[in-house]
Structures are given as C-alpha cells and as structure tokens.
Amino acid sequence: MNILILSDIHGNADALNAVLEHASRWDFVWVIGDLVDYGPEPQIVIDIIRDIKPDVILMGNHDYAVAFNVDCRCAPNIHDLSEYTRKYISYRLISRNQIEWLKGLAIKMEKTIEGKKVLAVHGSPRNPLYGYIEPGMSLEEIRFALTPSLYALKPRPVERDVVVIGHSHKPMKIYVDNILVVNPGSVGQPRDGIPKASYAIFNIEQSVFEIHRVEYDIERVVGKLRFLKIEDRYMLWLEKILKMGKI
Question: Are 80 and 72 contacting, i.e. CB atoms less than 8 angstroms apart?
Fold first, then answer.
C-alpha cells in the first residue's frame, strides 16, 4: 500500500502538477497542509487538490490564516513575506467558496493502518498548526515536540508508531523512541537548499519512506508572479527562495 504524501504546496501549481505526473501511481493521497500563500496560483492548487480527492487532507497554518483572516505565526525571517502574499495574492485570487472549504479542513488525523497507530499533523503533536520538528533539532527537542500537551514539563512523546508532519519545508525521516517521524518536504517552497519539488511515497506496512525530488519550470512560476505585479522587494525575495531552495 503506497501513500503519496504532499505538503506545503503554497500556491505553486506548476510544482504540484510536476509531482503528480512524476508520482504517476499511488493507492492513497495524504496532504499535510499549506496549500496557499507565497505562490502565484493558490486558487488552482486548491482546485487540483479537491479534484484528486485526497484520503487525508489537513489544515496548515497558512490555510488557517487565510480561512480565518488571522496571523500565520510564521518564523520571523519570513513573516513579512507571508503577510504580503496573503493580502496581495491569496485574497485576490481565492474565491469565497474556496475559503469556506479551507475552514472545514481537519487539524489532525489519527488512525490505525496495517496494525500501526498513525498521527498526522501539519506542525507537531505538541502544536499541530504552528510547532516545528526539523532535522537540526536535538533528540530532546524532538521528544518535547512529540509530546501532545503544551503544558508538559517533561517530554512524554505521543503513543504512536508513526508521526507524519510538514511545516518545516525540509524532508525528514528519523526514529525517536521507536516512533517513526517523517516529513515529505515541500512541493512548492523547498527550503533545504535543493530547488526541486519534494514529495514522499510511504509504505507504512514496510516502514519504507522514500523522498523524491522533481524539477519543474521555476522561471514559469516567476513569470506568473511578475504578472501579478508584485512589489519589487517581495518579487526578488520570492524569486530567490524558489531558485535557491532556501530562505
């Protein structure tokens, strides 16, 4: 049973289409949040995702921000860009119906698959919308992030066999106290220094988690951003992230 896992598409329909063409076959689709902001076609991304009818689709912090018109609580080094693109791209292009659809997305998924207890959230079990689990964190930091209570003084990781996350825009596979923690990376805004769309194919039964990187036409995406008449400062910022694969 192969699960196609997508996360952090961020309005980049070209990257999403390239991933879907590259993946070609799957049994199930899971989308781990953040369809909107940054990219030039959030409305098209929403339509594509709705059309493929994912078996699991979760809300990311950017989806929540657009849906409810609140702050995304992004990292300080990207917050200004996030706010700008939400106002001048996402809210310009996303329909009222699409916003209502975003409001209905789940914050987390918990189920047993092939005898394994699985939890999926955009951020972390400790903070499903906004928490980070990143490759550079210490095991103790990750244990705290895996602890479901925000008020816990000591790490007590969630009792799950597998935890699927997104949010950091960096692919990851790590075992922590017998919990397999995986992140497919970002489809539309990779930030691990590799400017290629990232996705994963996951066979839960065999615990085989494979990251795939896909080239797509970045110049085409940049051209679409320019067509929207983005302010020069933000245009250069977005172009640099897309072409370098990092902030």
Answer: no
Q: What is the pLDDT of residues 167-183, one digit of tens each?
A: 999 999 999 999 999 99
**pLDDT tens digits for range 202-227:** 998 888 999 999 999 999 999 999 99
CA separation (Å) from 164 to 18, 53, 171, 172? 22, 19, 11, 10
Residues for the chain: how many in total?
247
pTM summary value = 0.96
Could you give phi then psi for residue 213, rounded to 5 degrees?
A: -115, 135
CA distances for 184 relative to 33, 83, 85, 193, angstroms = 11, 25, 24, 15
Nearest to 49 by CA among 19, 25, 71: 19
Tokens representing 164?
Answer: 């699927």
Q: By 3-state DSSP, what share of the chain in percent is helix, strand and coil, each rounded to 5?
A: 35, 20, 45
Residue 85 CB contacts under 8 Å (≥ 6 apart), including other chains:
11, 37, 38, 39, 234, 238
All structural domains of the chain, each given as residue ranges with its CATH number in brackets, are 3-244 (3.60.21.10)
Question: Residue 200 in contact with residue 210, Cβ under 8 Å?
Answer: yes
Which of 203, 119, 232 has the alpha carbon at shortest distance from 166? 119
Taking Cα atoms as reference points, which of 73, 67, 26 lies closest to residue 46?
67
- 224, 188 Cβ separation under 8 angstroms: no
